[in-house]
Amino acid sequence: MSNIRFVLYLILLLSMFNCNLDKLPMDQISDAVFWKKSSDFELASNDFYFSLMEANQYIDMNSDIAYGSGSNDVSDGSYLAPVNSDEWDIPWKYIQSTSYLLRKAEESGLSDMEIGRWKGEAYFFRAYNYWKLIKFYGGVPLITIPLNTSSDELYTPRSTQAEIVDFIFDDLDKAIDMLPLQSGLNNSELGRVTKGAALALKARVALYEGTWQKYHGGTDSEKYLQVAIESSQAVINSGEYELFCEKGNLSYKYLHILEGDDSKEVILARRYYKLRATHNWTRELLLGSMVPTKNLADMYLCTDGLPIDKSSLFQVFETQKSEFENRDSRMEQTFVVPGSEIFSEGGGWTTVEPGFVGNNSTRTGYMIRKFMDETLDAVQFIGEYDFKEFRYAEVLLIFAEAVYEKNGFISDDQLNISINDLRSRANMPPLTNTFVSSHNLNMLEEIRRERTVELAFEGYRRDDLRRWGTAVNILPMAIRGVKFMGTEYQRKFPNLVIGKDIQVDEDGFIVVQPSTARKFEVTKHWLTPLPLQQVQLSNGTLKQNPGW
Prior knowledge:
Blueprint: H1 14-17, H2 38-46, E1 66-68, H3 73-76, H4 86-108, H5 112-137, H6 161-178, H7 195-215, H8 221-238, H9 251-255, E2 266-270, H10 281-286, E3 290-292, H11 294-297, H12 329-334, E4 340-343, E5 349-352, H13 376-379, E6 387-391, H14 392-407, H15 412-416, H16 419-425, H17 433-438, H18 443-454, H19 461-468, H20 471-474, E7 479-483, H21 488-492, E8 509-513, H22 532-537
Antiparallel strand pairs: 1-3, 2-6, 4-5, 7-8
Helix pairs in contact: 2-5, 4-5, 5-6, 5-7, 6-7, 7-8, 7-14, 7-19, 8-14, 14-18
């Protein structure tokens, strides 16, 4: 074992096709008899969908807007370089399996008319898994062929982040040419990758790289921002997608549970099915595994479109409900408002008042409503709703941000086809240049605010803070919760001893983790450390990220 190559989890579909064994197993399909017809390629491509984010990855506890039942070492900056990591291993597994399908497609003699769609899916998922790597690690080895344990390419050094992004674009352009439109799917194909998904991923990656270069000393930010604009605009112009509005004022809430599955807002989702593939995310949220923070609560605008520090409509913090009054409707569809009802494990509706003791205790005093399904199965650990990783709302946000970041300006017409579409669903007033200037607001801050509240708890926040360069100021801040001192909370929990049972700051707000316990080190924390074993086994070709 002394000559082990650096491990990329290059399984090459060995478990399915048994490529390197002399004898054919009785319970597996041999590679020699597979890859003969279109349905073989479809079967192989089905496996790629397992690389989409799962429920426990759909979190923001590694940032400032959510907190868990215990501290998060990534959020507070105390984490160490791991020996091994799924964030490294799993994407490489799928990069290899997609490359393997593409190799077998070349060897099969089948035409693109027969297998082009499955090649398109392979290109999409290879790009998607390279994207998962670069957002953690920056540049990684660029390997486009299937490998075995004796391949010289196992020692490939890291390419730059921009080189990987350009490769992702190339794969996605190929995928776009080969994949069907969303409207071209029949009912049995719902959930498969489409042109819209490839364009949405291209827009996402381009915005990331464009803003990363802009705020981290790069020279090509405008090039990538233009790609983000064009790709997101193509999705908008396609007419294939629209925001989910079928539930009226509660559409945002229902989008994220069963009612929103297969809606026109969904571009691509991790699919779940009763009795076949389920998750326990609703139940985990009921148990407080992730809770909102004051930092997120303060971001929601008042119904006049102004921040809480500028609006006369803000009702301060006297009662448990007061800070939720006259606010963006997404706030009460994301947070559990004290005194409101949730669907309980007993199968009925229960009034809930999040607090600090008992069944509804949370670290911050806040509780999440978003993703809480209203079915008995979901509250008993067998949730069946999909996780909508690519949705039309994100595309609208990408368009608005990319336009402003590239041009330093966004027109009211451009706001109307992006940000204001989202605000209309939330019954919020439109964002206009006149409104921003007359109230001394900052347009970029408002676009970023819209992104944060719309996509809260969907796993974007830490990546956003890093690419914007603002993590250095925001992540070291204390994690705080509701106002306790002098409010209804203190009157309802008179036995809690401040300084012993709970901690508060000078303004009376709950402090879950003080700023003294949090840090963000430049340049170290801009990127995640590569797993130590991978560096060790690379014979010096795999260089660790700065600071680690």
